[in-house]
Each structure stands twice: as structure tokens, then as C-alpha cells.
Amino acid sequence: MSKYKRLTALLLSSVIISTMTGCSDSGVEASADEAITLRILENDTAKQEGYLDVLINAFNEAYKDKGIQAVDANMEEYSDLAANGPYGYGPDVIYQANDKLMTYAEDKHILPLDIEEFDCYEYVPEEAGDAFNINIDGETYCCGIPVNIQEPMLFYREDKMPENWQTEWDDNSNGVADFFENWNDLYAYSKYLRDTDASANKDSQYGFMSSFNNLYLNGQFLFSYGAYVFGENADGTLNSEDIGLSKGNSVTGLSALRQMAALMNEGCIDDTITMNRYEKIADGTYFCAVSTPDTYSLFVEKLALKYENEGLSEADAKAKAIENLKMVELPELMPADGDLTKNSEEMSSSDWVETVVMGGVNGYAISSYTEHREACVEFINFATSFEMIQNRMDMLGIAPTRSDVAEASGGVTDTIFESLSEGNIYLMPSIKAVDQIWVPTQTLLGDIAKDPFREAAGEQPKYFSQQEIKKAIEKVDKDIYDAIYTLK
Q1: 138 in the same domain as 56
Q2: 137 backbone dihedrals φ, ψ, rounded to 5°
Q3: How many structural domains comprise the chain?
């Protein structure tokens, strides 16, 4: 973490005033006749699952003698700080992913912070902290405090594993099913489920399921094959003129996406699977679905409700749901040639490439429009304490960036940190230009996923060759460039 500079109070004030469009500070103690009220913007899951209430109540109890209280900002999680902040409607503290927070920072809507002010400093890995760095006039500043790391994960019910998986789906006898280790076997098992679906409408059992119109959840079909979002300048900063989604062998990966879509239903071309994955995992329609660690509690909630409806008590239903609901990383190997139909037993080590997923880091930041910077620092310090991050993990299932909490929990969190350090998680770029990548890229991914359904309906496929896919992804690169530089 040596690249973080310890800013003195004088320097920080100077930066806030001259560089980041700051504002006055009322101090951490409230005046005798006026309490400080901090508006906190959290994500929807934290609100729905009750974590925000737990956090606010704990903070208010701890700081009641200082005349500081926190309240829910009562805004949608993706509310626009840039639009609301200047008019006094924005939050004081905002929790968001690194790409969104750093977009605000680039436009001077977020205050720089001294990460060493915070108790979590010594426990935050450098990779997570780097996601909130911004370079201004050759100086690097921190504009967010990491809370949890995100990457696409597979969620499944352990009691829905095939009974013969140890004999038929564990070729290397390592105690892990092959379809959790490589994409060809995940394809093979998904195909087996589709081929053996005995329901009248052939819609009762699916294997791997994902909404392909979501780049974040499906970036592995690009980044595993050498694609990237933005290149780098000589000094290591991101170069938004160098757009690389069409680079490397990304066409190969998109061909694999097209193959996998053929084993799903048309929900894979839009948000349908994203919206129904909790219910469909619970009722057994989907064997596994893609989501992020912080949605773990939503899967458990749906599964517990199913068990309650079957007659279990609320406590027993939740215990059974926690026992059966599993979360693992996506398979670590993808076919180098993009052909998911090949038999994995006939493939050698050179026939594979490592899976690289898109990920991000969520954290807290302070609005430039707050009147209570120091009180906000106190709140973030409290919210990122061992106890509160532990509570957040227990309630929401996050993968915390605090190494001491992660070590205490073990399990999948350690695996995610290892993947990050080994370069198998491509973190969302922390610059404003990243806003322009989502719509054109996700539109194309959904359109490619639609091709098998065009064919099934007797229509002409749009992407009948890799050349067609290549032209389409190159156009996406151009569209992104134009949106950043030509049409702005």
C-alpha cells in the first residue's frame, strides 16, 4: 500500500478546495443546538436484508453522545450524485462499485481521503485499494474505502447434484465435479439436463444459466481470450483511446457464448434470468446460475421460503437452505479454441486457457457536497470496522476486503483473493469513460445469444461465422470510442 500518500490536514484541505470542489467542514462534534445528520446511500440488497438498519442503529448508539446520527438517504442505489449533489439532494456517504465512484471522483463529486486515517488500512490488500485511486496532475489520491470484492459466482443447490457425480463427473478423482472445473464439462452437463428433460414443454431443467446481456457477469467470454476494456499509458494509467474488446481471440470466446446460449431459454438474451434466478435455483429449474457474492442472502431467502412452504419451521428452513445453497467460482478452464462441445477427457493442458472474469470492488466514498466531512470519516471508519464488516458478511454473504475478516471466515473469500492476485479477475476500470462500454457491449452479447433461437424459429442467424462476430465486436469498439470522444 506504499503508493498511498499520507496527506496532512493542510494538504487535504488544499486539494479539496482547489482540485476536488470541496466544501466547509462542521467538525466531528455537533454544536450544542444542532445535531449532525448524515445521509447514507447503501445498495438495495443491504436495505432489503436489514443490514443498513443494523449499521445505522449501531452507529447512532455509538455516537449519540457526540450529537451525530446517520439516516437512510432514501434514494435508489443508482441515484445520480452528479445531478442531485449540487442541489442538496444527494447523500453524504455513498456505497457503490469502484467504476461508479471513480466516475464521480473524476468529475470532482467525491472527496479525496487519506486511507491511513481508517482502522481498516492495514488489512486492505493493495489490489482492492488501487481500484479507488485517481491520478491528478501526477499525484495519486484515494477516493474510496474498500468494503468487498465482487466477481461472478456460480450458485447451486448441493442436494441437486447428480447422484453419480463422483463416478461419472469427477474424472481426476479430486472430489470436485468436473463441471465446476472446466467449461466443456459444464456445457456437457447442461446438455445432458436439456436432453433428458421429460416435461411436456421441455422447460423443467436447465444447467448453466445467465443473462448474456450483462457484460459484468459474462466478461469471461472476452477477457479469458485476451480482450481488455482500455489499454494503459506508459505511466500505467488507463488509456481510454485504446479500446480492446475486439482484441486477442475475443471472437473465439463469443463463439463459445453462442454455443452455451443454445442450451438455455430465451431468457438469456435479456434480464429474465437475472430477475428469476433466485426462484429458479430454489425450485430446481436451474442447476446453477451466475450472480455476485453479495446476493447470497437472496438465494438463501428464496430457498428457505420453499422449505417453509413444504412444512419446515422458519428456523429449520433457513438452516436447511444455508446447508444446501452453495457458491463457487466459475470453472477455471475454458477451451482455447472456443469449442465447448469437445470431450474434456481428450483435451491436453495446451487445449485450455484460464478463465478471467470481470470483477469490481465496492466501497464507501464521501460526497463533495457534504457539510460534515469529518463526521463522514467517522461513519466510514465505523462501517468498515471488523465488527460491522463481519456483520455485513454474515447477513449478505459478501467477500470482504478486510483480510482479518476474510481469514476468520475462510472458504470462498480466500479463493477470490487468490484469483485477484493471480490476475484472473479483471477489475472494472476506474475512469469515467467506462460508462460508455456497457450499452453497446451488452447489446451485442444479447444479440449473439439470440442467434440459436433465430435458427430454431427458422430464421437466418446474424452471426453465422466468426468473421461476422469479428465485425460486430470491432464496431462495438468504435461505438465506444465515438461515445467517449466524438459524440460527447
Answers
A1: yes
A2: 55, 40
A3: 2
List phi, psi (to 5°) of 136.
-130, 120
Establish how many alpha carbons lie within 13 A of residue 431's alpha carbon, considering only the half-sphere containing its beta carbon.
Answer: 15
238 and 321 co-located in one domain: yes
Number of CB atoms found within 10 A of residue 180's CB: 22
pLDDT in tens, 39-94: 999 999 999 999 999 999 999 999 999 999 999 999 888 888 888 888 888 899 99
Are both 53 and 129 inside the same structural domain?
Answer: yes
Domain-terminating residue out of 423, 450, 469:
423
Alpha helix (H) ranges present in 89-159?
A: 98-106, 126-130
Q: Are residues 182 and 324 in the same domain?
A: yes
Give domain status of residue 284, yes or no.
yes
Are 150 and 293 in contact by the 8 Å Cβ rule? The answer is: yes
Per DSSP (E only), the strands in 42-157 are: 68-72, 93-97, 133-136, 139-142, 145-150, 153-157
Q: Which of 226, 248, 189 is nearest to 354 (CA)?
A: 226
85, three cell numbers: 449533489
What is the value of pTM for the model shown? 0.88
User: Kind of pairing, strands 145-150 and 357-366?
Assistant: antiparallel
As given in the structure block, the three cell numbers for residue 286 are: 436451474
